[in-house]
Amino acid sequence: MARLELIIVFALLFEVRSDNREHLYRFYHPDQDVTLPCGIKNQPPQCSRMSWLYNRDSSHTLIEASRGKIEKTSLRADRLSLDSNCSLVIKHITAEDVGFYTCRLEQQFEFDVNVFLSLLTVSQLPADSDQTRNSEVTLECSLLRYIDGRPCQPNGLHWLDETGTEVTEGVQKLSRGTDCVSHLKVKNQSGDNRKFTCQFVQRNKVEIQADYPPDLIGRTM
């Protein structure tokens, strides 16, 4: 009986400690400078005891920073730094920065701060396609995400025209691993100030959006 009580107490303690872990989801555009927070609950900044880990997928973990310093062996060392709060600063993010980041206080896993970094891009396919008036072009909206085996949620990406009306005609949603991808076929209306916006919506909230053409880009954080 005493052993059973001990197991129950341990399970309760584990559950409480697990609640200290934070899961943050951040959405960005290419070439932004971003800061991934490392605010461990009820813990003052202790950068000399902190590490930053990175996973592009669940099979391999890289150490990007340890004991308050960026690892010199990191392939991204020239773009990484730590601020006074131990947050990880990444300059000019690209697709290679997408993934799952963990800020850890030594080996105290129960205080992990987990940050999922995703990247939204909108481009024309192919980039050098015919630009003549009234020609048909394909726009691609991609949300690059952490590879964890879970597919992109249905209807996560939405297209809007310049009036804010949702566009459904000419839309094709694709499966590309865990990334969210949507194509939109439109007539090239150069000179008419036409604009198309791709939004990523999650739980009825617009997490991020990007416009096409690029010179009309309006970004929402």
TrEMBL record:
<feature type="domain" description="Ig-like">
    <location>
        <begin position="32"/>
        <end position="114"/>
    </location>
</feature>
<dbReference type="InterPro" id="IPR013783">
    <property type="entry name" value="Ig-like_fold"/>
</dbReference>
<protein>
    <recommendedName>
        <fullName>Ig-like domain-containing protein</fullName>
    </recommendedName>
</protein>
<dbReference type="GO" id="GO:0009897">
    <property type="term" value="C:external side of plasma membrane"/>
</dbReference>
<dbReference type="GO" id="GO:0042289">
    <property type="term" value="F:MHC class II protein binding"/>
</dbReference>
<dbReference type="InterPro" id="IPR003599">
    <property type="entry name" value="Ig_sub"/>
</dbReference>
<dbReference type="GO" id="GO:0070374">
    <property type="term" value="P:positive regulation of ERK1 and ERK2 cascade"/>
</dbReference>
<dbReference type="InterPro" id="IPR013106">
    <property type="entry name" value="Ig_V-set"/>
</dbReference>
<dbReference type="GO" id="GO:0042110">
    <property type="term" value="P:T cell activation"/>
</dbReference>
<dbReference type="InterPro" id="IPR036179">
    <property type="entry name" value="Ig-like_dom_sf"/>
</dbReference>
<dbReference type="InterPro" id="IPR007110">
    <property type="entry name" value="Ig-like_dom"/>
</dbReference>
<dbReference type="GO" id="GO:0035723">
    <property type="term" value="P:interleukin-15-mediated signaling pathway"/>
</dbReference>
<dbReference type="GO" id="GO:0045121">
    <property type="term" value="C:membrane raft"/>
</dbReference>
<feature type="signal peptide">
    <location>
        <begin position="1"/>
        <end position="18"/>
    </location>
</feature>
<dbReference type="GO" id="GO:1990782">
    <property type="term" value="F:protein tyrosine kinase binding"/>
</dbReference>
<dbReference type="Pfam" id="PF07686">
    <property type="entry name" value="V-set"/>
</dbReference>
<keyword id="KW-0732">Signal</keyword>
